[in-house]
Automatic annotation (TrEMBL):
The keyword Repeat is assigned to this record: yes
Domain of life according to the entry: Eukaryota
Name by which UniProt lists this protein: Disease resistance N-terminal domain-containing protein
Single GO MF annotation: nucleotide binding
GO biological process: defense response
Family per similarity comment: Belongs to the disease resistance NB-LRR family.
Keywords, comma-separated and alphabetical: Leucine-rich repeat, Nucleotide-binding, Plant defense, Repeat
Organism whose genome encodes this protein: Oryza glumipatula
Gene3D superfamilies linked: 1.20.5.4130
InterPro entries cross-referenced by the UniProt entry: Rx_N
Length: 99
C-alpha cells in the first residue's frame, strides 16, 4: 500500500514538472509555429486536469486495485509526455544554436 502511495506521489511530481515545462515552452522562444503553441496550451490544460484527478485517485488507490492500475498507466503516460517535452526542448535548443 505504501508503494502505491509513493508511486502516485511520484506521478504527481512528474505531472507538475511536465506542466511547468509546457508553460516554459509556451512562454519562451521555443515555439515557432502558432499551431504547436496552441497544442501545447491544450496539453498544459489537460495535464492540470489530470493532476487534479490524480490527487483524488491517490487517496483511493490504497483500497482499490483498479485505481492502482489506472494510476500506473497514468504515471507511464506522464513519463512519456515528460520525455517528449525533453526531446522537443533539446531539439529546439540545437536548432537555435545553428542560427
Amino acid at each position: 500500500m505504501a508503494a502505491a502511495a509513493a508511486g502516485a506521489m511520484l506521478a504527481s511530481a512528474v505531472l507538475k514538472v511536465a506542466t511547468q515545462k509546457i508553460g516554459s515552452a509556451i512562454g519562451g522562444q521555443l515555439m515557432l509555429r502558432w499551431s504547436l503553441t496552441r497544442d501545447l496550451e491544450e496539453m498544459k490544460d489537460t495535464m492540470a486536469s489530470i493532476e487534479a484527478v490524480l490527487q483524488d485517485a491517490e487517496r483511493r488507490s490504497v483500497r482499490d486495485a483498479a485505481v492502482r492500475l489506472w494510476l500506473k498507466r497514468l504515471k507511464d503516460a506522464a513519463y512519456d509526455i515528460s520525455d517528449l517535452l525533453d526531446e522537443l526542448e533539446a531539439s529546439s535548443q540545437l536548432g537555435s544554436r545553428k542560427i
